[in-house]
UniProtKB/TrEMBL annotation:
Organism: Pseudomonas marincola
Subunit-structure text: Monomer and homodimer.
Keyword Endoplasmic reticulum: no
Top-tier EC class: lyase
Protein's recorded name: GTP 3',8-cyclase
HAMAP family: MoaA_B (MF_01225_B)
Cofactor requirement: [4Fe-4S] cluster
Entry binding sites for S-adenosyl-L-methionine: 30, 70, 121, 192
Family according to the record: Belongs to the radical SAM superfamily. MoaA family.
Gene: moaA
Binding residues for [4Fe-4S] cluster 1: 24, 28, 31
């Protein structure tokens, strides 16, 4: 018997994003500080706890789960967890966001485990710039990973690019061309003010409308009303039927009215909105009631009534939320 979840504003919640680790092999400038302290093992959810929560949310009507992090593919046992979650009756799709660094080895096992789609982050096609943005990343390894994913049989692969003035705005057209040549989708994301990463965010802010203007210089844009169950708006380009170009614009276009998601941090905090601090501590309940889901269900239900109506990001208002993206599950 599958339930359904609604928040206090009548929004239907059927999408859960789960962070499976706060760790990562990269240190992207917009996501982490150079020196990071990661959580001790006992504070993060075990694979069994992650599975228990996934099953509980699917039982409450969640149709789509995205595993993210940190870098989900650095968590040991991730492929087995994917296999278990993908098999939950009632779940329509299990998807993942990854930085691509481990895909040469893991793309095929993930596809075989039942992961339907991948989002792969790619901010630059120039090795030195890629390294500067990720601080540790090797571009070729990620490009090989993208190729391995293309061969592995996912239903769809989307690239994610955080557009930043002075860092990669001059590569917008190259990145679009890269995606089109491979029949991939690509989404450009406005940088969000999460965590103190040691610099002012306003410096590098580059709006989705500026990205769109750059694309319009080379391609004929066809507006599209397509939705992927996420916050992105899409366009298509004349002559390229396979690829969609998306924009995630928390600053310039507010998408809260149709929000259908909640997030679970790697510590088991259920975050009701990316732009607010209010959350529900599910880890304590998981550990206090190992055999009884009812206290968890009650806490989730009560929490949803407190899901905020909207976030309040602005790009000149620097740090409003003190968590880092890697602990939140981007
Ligand atoms: N490590 C994986 C990756 O990089 O794809 C998954 C986790 S990462 C936090 C998820 C997405 O969030 C990535 O596409 C990343 O570019 C994006 N991201 C991280 N920090 C961000 C920020 N401050 N603003 C906007 N997007 C951000
Ligand atoms: Fe790691 Fe992803 Fe954050 Fe980059 S954006 S530091 S790859 S978690």
């Amino acid at each position: 018997m599958h339930g359904s979840m609604q928040d206090g504003f009548g929004r239907h919640i059927d999408y859960l994003r789960m962070s499976v680790t706060d760790r990562c092999d990269f240190r992207c400038v917009y996501c982490m500080a150079e020196e990071m302290t990661f959580l001790p093992r006992e504070q993060i959810l075990s694979l069994e706890e992650l599975y228990r929560l996934a099953a509980l949310f699917v039982g409450q009507g969640v149709k789509k789960i995205r595993l993210t992090g940190g870098e989900p593919l650095v968590r040991r046992g991730i492929v087995g967890l994917c296999e278990q979650i993908a098999a939950l009756p009632g779940l329509r799709e299990l998807v993942m966001t990854t930085n691509g660094s481990q895909l040469v080895k893991l793309a095929k096992p993930l596809a075989d485990a039942g992961v339907k789609r991948l989002n792969i982050s790619l901010d630059s096609l120039q090795a030195d710039k890629f390294h500067a943005i990720t601080r540790t990343g090797d571009l070729q390894q990620v490009l090989d990973g993208i190729e391995a994913a293309r061969q592995a049989g996912f239903e769809r692969i989307k690239l994610n690019t955080v557009a930043m003035a002075g860092r990669n705005e001059d590569e917008v057209l190259d990145l679009v061309e890269f995606a089109l040549a491979r029949d991939l989708d690509i989404t450009f994301i406005e940088e969000m003010p999460l965590g103190d990463v040691g610099r002012s965010r306003g410096e590098s802010f580059f709006a989705s409308d500026q990205v769109r203007d750059l694309i319009a210089e080379r391609y004929s844009i066809i507006d599209s009303a397509e939705q992927s169950g996420g916050p992105a708006r899409y366009i298509r380009l004349e002559g390229f039927a396979q690829s969609r170009i998306g924009f995630i614009s928390p600053h310039s276009h507010n998408f809260c009215a149709t929000c259908n998601r909640v997030r679970l941090t790697v510590e088991g905090r259920l975050l009701l909105c990316l732009g607010h601090e209010n959350s529900v501590d599910l880890r304590a309940l998981l550990r206090r009631y190992p055999e009884n889901d009812q206290p968890l269900l009650d806490a989730v239900g009560a929490g949803l009534q407190r899901k905020p109506e909207r976030h309040e990001f602005t790009h000149d208002n620097d740090i409003q939320v003190v968590r880092f993206m890697n602990a939140t599950g981007g």
